[in-house]
Amino acid sequence: MSYENRPNQSLELPPIEKEEDLFDYSYEQPGSVPGTLNIEEDAEIPEIVLIDYNGDRADLISHLTPEACAEHLNTKSVSWVDVKGLGSENILQRLGKVFDLHPLVLEDVVNVPQRPKVEDYPQQLVIITQMVVLKPSGEGFWLEQVSLVVGKNYLLTVQEKPEKDCFLPVRRRIKFNKGSIRDMGSDYLAYALWDAIIDGFFPILEIYGEKIEDLEDKVIFNPSNSSLAEVYQIKRELLALRRAIWPQRNALNTLIRDGSSVIDPNILIFLRDCYDHTVQIIDIIETYRELASSLTDIYLSSISNKMNEVMKLLTVISSIFIPLTFIAGIYGMNFNSSVSPFNMPELDWYWGYPLCWTLMIAIAATLVYFFWKRGWFEDFSKIPK
Fold it and tell me: Helices in 332-351 by DSSP H: which ranges?
């Protein structure tokens, strides 16, 4: 089946049905035999899709068996074997035999997650990367390991989940013969896929940049416990992004510096562009992490400032009512003025009650005027609600 014969053939993957926690990782038991494969119980059964192409054609074959891939490995065309899912040890072992994978390579591919790295073998180059996938809700993401095994005229990619990935632009370039990808070898295809994985970090970071901007206004003008929780969540997720992209920079640097027997030296120039993108991503992540850390300080300062303004307001109110309470307390004492002329003679005055009110109002008005002249009441209007 070729793209030309089936123009409506879609390479898009089925929608995501299940989300996993960002840090829900499992590891092999200590002391396991090297090359042991650990298959998670909820892992999806692998689906094998082959895209075989050259300068004149591009064919798509889905639902292949591992053995059916063998006949495409020694042709002059480029064969991209994409495996989606890690839920069958039998299929994965058979793939290892077909592609002549070292047991330790197969272990790195299957037992996720692995630190992104590059390992050069005599006939193959193994690249372990981390792909970031935005959740369907648009809130948060998860990380997925993608393994690339580059050989002469073939490329094997293994993904954790059979869900939507970031390779659709590359598939379209192959399908519609855009650019020079169909005139190049498997090493250029590996570069194109790795570049797509790295570029997939930029849209995620753009979302986090907008989140941090929104949180700045929220933390300054309306600080709350929920905003502080959002700040810590962003810091945690940015740390996960940093841990995913930082080793990829080191892997690219190693490959550019040392080269590989299966990578044409001309392709290394393109890999330098990938390296530059990883540096940009790391710089953006570090900037956002510093901004998120400063948001915590801003939150604490906002809460402290809010508390200071509230205390100042209470102090002003208390300062106004303390002398009034003093006067009311004196005239509230039960002294009998008929026993002694010194026992509150004001109680017998004709204008005593109006005079007491006049005195208290005058004191209160004087204090209010004094505080107003000092500008304290203007500050109270700025207290966050």
Answer: none
Residue ranges of domains in the chain? 1-178, 309-380
pTM over 0.90: no
Share of the chain above pLDDT 90, in %: 44
The C-alpha atoms of residue 63 and residue 224 are separated, in whole angstroms, by 52
Distance of CA 309 to the CA centre of its chain: 36
CATH number assigned to the domain covering 1-178: 3.30.460.20
pLDDT digits (tens, 9 = 90+) for 208-260: 999 998 888 888 777 777 888 888 899 999 999 999 999 999 999 999 999 88
The three-state secondary structure class of 375 is: coil
Secondary structure of 80-121 in HEC code, one letter for each residue: EEEEECCCCHHHHHHHHHHCCCCHHHHHHHHCCCCCCEEEEC
Q: What is the pLDDT of residues 109-141, one digit of tens each?
A: 998 889 999 999 988 999 999 999 888 777 788
309-380 folds as Methane Monooxygenase Hydroxylase; Chain G, domain 1 (1.20.58)
Q: Distance between alpha carbon 87 and the CA centroid of its chain, in Å?
A: 27
